[in-house]
Design goal:
Layout (H helix, E strand, L loop, with lengths): L5 H17 L5 H5 L2 H15 L6 H15 L5 H4 L3 H18 L5 H15 L18 H7 L22 H17 L1 H11 L8
Helix pairs in contact: 1-3, 1-6, 1-7, 3-10, 7-9, 9-10
């Protein structure tokens, strides 16, 4: 597992950036003031990254410290820049580990669905337009991003080494989340995930 360090902070920022931006938030602290997003990130840290300590008090201190580092007024627009590099460096290693260990991959499937939607449109869920700045995506990557087959995103160059298309359960989740984000929006999907308590901690 990853240790509590800058990589975890970067991974958490990446997990938050795309869904929160699409939902209409523009800074990290605004997004984390929404219980749905704070629970989503807490679940990622608690269940996917799993901070490495056997001491419950130390774990809570680490988690509190990380949230303190996260909850500043960083621009989500800036955090969305160069997602190709950030996903490859900070999220893909955790996803590989989860897949290899046959563990829960739903939160990262949700993130990649949000990332794919973010790249394939230029309007957030409130109808506000935005510009995409992802300089490490190549022409072939953009062909896959703009394909009518949303699964093509999983084979863009930053993700190709993980061979995500070979994990049928992951592909099914990703496709479902892409469709729901397009049809219902980020917030509706997050609420459904929280209600069913499959992907996040309880909201009450």
């Amino acid at each position: 597992m990853q240790t509590y360090n800058q990589d975890i902070l970067n991974a958490s920022h990446t997990m938050l950036a795309y869904p929160a931006f699409l939902a209409g938030y523009r800074t990290v602290d605004e997004a984390l003031n929404d219980r749905l997003f704070s629970n989503y990130i807490s679940a990622f840290l608690d269940q996917d990254v799993a901070l490495t300590t056997s001491d419950s008090d130390d774990y809570e201190n680490q988690l509190a410290s990380l949230f303190s580092s996260l909850a500043i007024s960083d621009s989500l627009d800036q955090l969305c820049c160069d997602g190709a590099s950030k996903l490859s460096a900070f999220v893909l290693p955790t996803l590989r580990e989860l897949l290899e260990e046959n563990r829960d991959v739903r939160r990262i499937a949700f993130l990649l669905a949000a990332y794919g939607h973010y790249l394939s449109t230029t309007t957030d869920d409130n109808g506000v337009t935005y510009e995409i700045n992802d300089p490490n995506l190549h022409q072939d990557d953009w062909s896959k991003i703009n394909s009518t087959d949303v699964v093509s995103l999983l084979s863009i160059s930053p993700l190709a080494s993980a061979r995500l298309q070979t994990f049928s359960y992951f592909v099914t989740l990703y496709k479902s989340y892409r469709a729901q984000i397009a049809q219902l929006g980020i917030m509706v999907l997050l609420k459904q995930m929280a209600y069913h308590r499959m992907d996040m901690r309880a909201t009450s």
